[in-house]
Amino acid sequence: AKEAGGGVYATYDPAMHDALTQRLSLAGDLRRALERDELVLHYQPTVDLATGEIKGFEALVRWEHPTRGMVPPLDFIGIAESTGLIVPLGRWVLAEACRQAVAWGRPLTMAVNVSVRQFEAGDLAATVAEVLAETGMPAGRLCLEMTESVLLTDTDENLSRIVGLKALGVMLAMDDFGTGYSSLAYLRRFPMDVLKIDRSFVDRLGEGDAEDETLVRTIVRLGHRFGMRTVAEGIENEAQMSALRGMGCDFGQGYFLSRPLPARQAGALLEAGVPA
Ligand code: C2E
Ligand code: CA
Ligand code: CA
Ligand code: CA
Description:
Strand content: 15-25%
Largest sheet: 8 strands, mixed, barrel
Distance between the termini: 58 Å
Number of helices: 13
Radius of gyration: 20 Å
Structural class: alpha/beta
Bound molecules: ligand C2E, calcium ion
Strand order of the largest sheet: 1-2-4-5-6-7-8-9
């Protein structure tokens, strides 16, 4: 039994120990996964809500673990961040996504998620410049998606990092907009090109609730007033899609349009189109 305020023995918790062991073993596996090509990217299309055309894709990493099967990013991105592996992993994701975009041979945009640690460790702008040169990806077609946690550390250093990335000519997206505490302040401070409306807002659309609709409509207007394109995440049905289209939201993503797909199937979807 445990007692509050106790020493080492009192705080020992076998369940926590198991969780730690699991994390450590996953961390070791992840190191090898990078070398053994166990990571793959899936691609989810971003669709122009006015025309139904595929404008580009978002690259989402998956881990094909030899014994655990497909491991979703939320189960290992945190581990990659705390071990510093996110830096080589993030570089690999960038390069692979750019290679694929160039291979498709169309003027698509490719969106890549960038985590805080990746942003703050090392010189992301230099890495991005290298990857663009290596792959021949035009800078203007790459979009880096960052959540508020990146922008939260509102230091001058982070602002200059953002400016450094912008100087390369890449696009920047504010991911999961509306989920943090002070999203609004970032609109003024950071020169972002794209605003991604978080899925939690889209979830509640299309059910005829006037307040939910007003909220999303206001976010779309706000984005436009700040010169940003708006992308709605997590569209799961027709009603949500037509509501967003009616609000003038520029782009949409979600299972209703397409799940994230392996490269080959994403390529096939490019030929076939989505049911927008
Ligand atoms: P995110 O950037 O917000 O990505 C959207 C997530 O929502 C993806 O989950 C996607 O599969 C899922 N999604 C898309 N459409 C729908 C829908 O209609 N309904 C529902 N319920 N979900 C939908 P996924 O692939 O599991 O990724 C989770 C998170 O992991 C991402 O959230 C992103 O923050 C992170 N992540 C994924 N790939 C990378 C990566 O390469 N690098 C970094 N740093 N983070 C990544
Ligand atoms: Ca994202
Ligand atoms: Ca999201
Ligand atoms: Ca998210």
